[in-house]
Amino acid sequence: MSFKYRHGKSMGRTLAALASVFVLLLAACGSGDKDPLTQCVDHDKLDSHIHVNLSTVFNGQEEALPAGIGVTPQCMSPTHTHDESSAIHVESPSNQKYTVGDFFDIWGARSPDLREGAVVESVLLNGEPYSGDYRDIEFEDGQRIEVAFGNGRADILTQCITHNDLSTRMRVTLITPFNGQPATVPANIGITSDCMRPVHTHDDSSLVYIEGPGNQQYTVGDFFKVWGEDNPYLGAGIENVSLNGQPYIGDYRDIVFEDGQRIAVAFGNRTPTGPAT
C-alpha cells in the first residue's frame, strides 16, 4: 500500500470524525433552551416566583416604575410588572437566575438607562451602597434596589431666566388627554413669584414656552420635571404619543422641543392587558 493511499484514507477518517462532531454540536445547540428573556411564563409550570422592589431616580427625581413592563396580550416575560407599585415579579420554570440588567433589557427603549447622556450616579441594595455594576445584581425575594441616573440637566432646569438676554424663544403646543378625555396643561408651570424656569406656561392654552440665554435644547421630559410633584400624571401609563400629527414610538420624554411643534401625550390608568399574579 502506498503512502499516498494510506494518507488519503487517514485524512478521510479524520474529516468524517470532524463532520460527526460538527453535527453533534449543531444538535446540541438546536436542542438547548431559547433565550430565557424571550420565554413566556406558564403559571402551571413555575419552580420559582419572587418579588423585588426596584426604584429608579433621574436627576434627583424618583420615577414610578411603569405598569405592564414585559407584559403583552400574547406573552408575559419572566421579569415583569403589573402596576406602578415598583414591584417586579420574577417567575421561572427552572429556577433560572435573573438580574437587574435582564429587567432593563426587557423594559427596552423607554428604560432610564437609555436616555440621552444617562449615567449611573448611585446604587442602593437593601438600603446599603452598592459599588458594583447594578446590571449584575441577581434578583432575590424581598430585595429593595434603587438605581439613580442623571444626565447633568437638573441644574439647567433650576435656572431663573429674564427676558433681557434671550437667545432662544419658542412656543410648543402640548396636550395631555387622560383616559381618552381632554385635559389642559395648567397655567404658571415653572413660574413663581421670584423665578421663571426656561420651560414654563403662562395660561391654560396648552402653550409651553421655551426660553433661554443660550442655545440649550429642552425636552418634554424637562417640562414634566419642572412641573414636578403637582403633575397629575405621575405613575400613569402611556397610551399613545403623537408628534405633529404622526404617531411617535420612542420615549415621549426624549422629544426635543422645536418651535411650532404639536405634541400629544395620552395618559391613562387602565389596567395593562395580560394575566396578573
* Helix percentage range: 10-25%
What series of H and E elements makes up the topology?
HEEEEHEEEHEEEHEEE
Strand percentage, roughly?
25-35%
CATH architecture verdict of the largest domain = Beta Complex
How many helical elements? 4
Largest sheet: 7 strands, mixed
State Rg. Answer: 26 Å
Category from helices, strands and their pairing? alpha+beta
Low-pLDDT residue intervals, each spanning 5 or more residues = 1-11, 14-33, 271-277
Outline:
globular
Q: What is the CATH topology classification name of the largest domain?
A: Ferric Hydroxamate Uptake Protein, Chain A, domain 1
How many structurally independent domains?
3
Number of strands: 13
Mean pLDDT: 83
Terminal CA distance: 74 Å
Q: Tell me, what is the CATH class of the largest domain? A: Mainly Beta
Set down the secondary structure blueprint.
Elements: H1 3-31, E1 48-58, E2 61-63, E3 79-80, E4 87-92, H2 100-107, E5 119-125, E6 128-129, E7 144-150, H3 154-157, E8 168-175, E9 199-200, E10 207-212, H4 220-227, E11 237-243, E12 246-247, E13 262-268
Provide a descriptive summary of the structure in words.
The chain has 277 residues and is of the alpha+beta class. It contains 4 helices and 13 strands. It folds into 3 domains: 32 residues; 115 residues, Ferric Hydroxamate Uptake Protein, Chain A, domain 1, CATH 2.170.130; 114 residues, Ferric Hydroxamate Uptake Protein, Chain A, domain 1 (Beta Complex), CATH 2.170.130. Strand 3 and strand 4 form a beta hairpin. It starts with a helix and ends in a 9-residue tail after the last strand.
